[in-house]
């Protein structure tokens, strides 16, 4: 018989003549009191509910205790709060605050049918796991895995949320494309060794518009970084133009996306592009004069020096036409640092220096958004043996990011955290110790008196209430 892992009383170092002891009998206490702000966002925007509509539920309604919205919401909210492991849900299922977030009528769980489940308002790890493993083609007949995610609907969902964020269409948007590595440490379906990253990994493709996530596509790594980009752009641009037919669109990416098929598609569909361009001897020769001047200036000032040249360029075989290229002739203390970009934008729209420094270099912020997902929201927790389940995990992480981005974009606007990373927002704003008391008429959340950001929570709530008028419940 295994012994009890948690002792009844924990003894710590004493304080003077007093003993310092602790136990786990505090009752309904939560460390996530600030998560009520996420509930305000959900009430106003319906983001999680709309995501849940991307799932087909084939269960018998008379036997259902957890709706698909409650299951999906439980997974998304917990990831936003830092609980990435499905095993965590066997303890989290007891949390009345989390039950309040997903809309459980009885957050105490006393209305559960089976006596063994009473007191546990939420689903456990097994139920959440079945949600991830369902196959859309087999869910209708499967005994256990009967809630299936429809990928086409999820793709449209992310773009719709982006479009709904604007009351009036912007004049111009920039779509940033990037691929990154998702290291794998098991025998996952679709894993391959990637020479550049030096490990077995997936190679997900992301598309952002500013801080808005439009695409998170999990892919095996035995492909080019730009694989599938034309198809994704065709779908996303088409959906955007259904709502905003006159909008100007610029597609931006690093040199991995400077392929003829992508640029040709953009040119044929009224979309501008700006891509990094891999340097070669011919390109470096084109800026040789500018590089000599930059080198001379560096030796005079001992500070980084750079000059730009605008010219037309065409590859020998891979491109079917000449295109505008801007070369940066930069000289640093380490030596020459030539860089190139290719674009469809005219010189009248962007001069060479503004094109590179103001427009192209701004794409680096997208890398921060990807880091937020992978480091703060567990987008790389793709440990399931099934590729389909790992894609769904990436989507759960992505919806958690969308929620936190809405909190940052609307709730934290004008505050000291309006540009904070997701993990900073979680630690400072969501992780609030609170006592939970539930009565017939109220759910009382009593925050810790020593919480240092009381005024910030008040400000964020007021901002969200103004942004979502009237709030939908």
Could you please describe the fold and organization of this structure?
The chain is an alpha+beta fold. The chain folds into two domains: 29-148 and 386-467, no CATH class; 152-376, Transposase Inhibitor Protein From Tn5, Chain A, domain 1, CATH 3.90.350.10. Helices cover 37% and strands 20% of the residues. It contains 16 helices and 19 strands. It has helices at 36-45, 47-52, 68-80, 89-92, 96-101, 125-133, 151-164, 229-243, 260-268, 281-286, 288-301, 352-360, 364-376, 387-411, 422-430, 454-467; strands spanning 10-15, 18-22, 29-30, 55-57, 147-149, 172-179, 182-183, 192-194, 199-202, 205-209, 212-217, 248-253, 272-277, 305-313, 323-332, 335-336, 339-343, 434-438, 443-447. The strands form five sheets. Strands 6, 10, 11, 12, 13, 14, 15, 16 and 17 form a nine-stranded mixed sheet that branches. Helix 9 (260-268) links the parallel strand 12 and strand 13 (272-277). Helix 1 packs parallel to helix 16, helix 3 (68-80) crosses helix 14 and helix 7 packs across helix 8 (229-243). The radius of gyration is 26 Å and the shape is globular. The two termini are 49 Å apart. The model has no long low-confidence stretch (mean pLDDT 94).
Q: Key terms for this structure?
A:
473 residues; alpha+beta; Transposase Inhibitor Protein From Tn5, Chain A, domain 1; 2 domains; nine-stranded mixed β-sheet
């Amino acid at each position: 018989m295994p012994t009890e892992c948690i002792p009844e009383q924990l003894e710590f170092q004493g304080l003077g003549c007093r003993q310092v002891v602790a136990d786990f009998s505090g009752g309904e206490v939560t460390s996530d009191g600030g998560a009520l702000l996420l509930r305000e966002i959900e009430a106003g925007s319906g983001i999680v509910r709309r995501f849940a509509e991307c799932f087909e539920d084939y269960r018998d309604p008379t036997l259902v205790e957890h709706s698909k919205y409650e299951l999906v919401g439980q997974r998304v909210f917990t990831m936003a709060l830092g609980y990435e492991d499905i095993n965590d849900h066997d303890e989290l299922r007891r949390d009345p605050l989390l039950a309040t977030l997903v809309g459980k009528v009885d957050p105490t769980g006393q209305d559960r049918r089976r006596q063994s489940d009473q007191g546990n308002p939420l689903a456990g790890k097994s139920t959440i796991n079945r949600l991830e493993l369902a196959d859309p083609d087999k869910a209708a007949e499967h005994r256990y895995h009967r809630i299936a995610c429809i990928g086409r609907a999820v793709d449209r969902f992310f773009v719709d949320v982006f479009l709904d964020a604007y009351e009036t269409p912007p004049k111009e948007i920039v779509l940033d494309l990037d691929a990154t590595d998702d290291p794998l440490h098991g025998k996952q379906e679709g894993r391959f060794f990637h020479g550049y990253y030096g490990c077995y990994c997936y190679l997900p493709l992301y598309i952002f518009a500013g801080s808005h996530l439009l695409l998170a596509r999990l892919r095996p790594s035995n492909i080019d970084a730009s694989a599938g980009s034309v198809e994704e752009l065709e779908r996303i641009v088409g959906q955007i133009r259904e709502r905003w037919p006159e909008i100007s669109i610029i597609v931006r990416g690093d040199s991995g996306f400077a392929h003829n098929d992508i640029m040709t598609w953009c040119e044929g569909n009224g979309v501008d592009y700006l891509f990094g361009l891999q340097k070669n001897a011919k390109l470096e020769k084109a800026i040789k004069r500018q590089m000599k001047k930059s080198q001379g200036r560096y030796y005079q000032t001992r500070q980084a020096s750079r000059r730009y040249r605008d010219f037309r360029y065409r590859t020998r075989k891979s491109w079917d036409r000449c295109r505008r290229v801007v070369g940066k002739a930069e000289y640093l203390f380490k030596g020459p640092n030539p860089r190139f970009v290719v674009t469809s934008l005219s010189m009248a729209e962007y001069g060479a220096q503004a094109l590179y420094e103001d427009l192209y270099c701004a794409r680096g912020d997208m890398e921060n958004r990807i880091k937020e997902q992978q480091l703060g929201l567990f987008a790389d927790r793709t440990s399931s043996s099934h590729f389909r389940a790992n894609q769904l995990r990436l989507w759960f992480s992505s919806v958690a990011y969308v929620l936190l981005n809405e909190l940052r974009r609307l709730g934290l606007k004008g505050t000291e955290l309006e540009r904070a990373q997701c993990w900073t927002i979680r630690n400072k704003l969501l992780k609030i110790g609170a006592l939970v008391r539930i009565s017939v008429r109220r759910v009382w959340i009593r925050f810790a008196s020593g919480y240092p950001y009381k005024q910030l929570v008040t400000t964020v709530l007021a901002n969200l209430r103004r942004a979502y008028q009237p709030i939908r419940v």
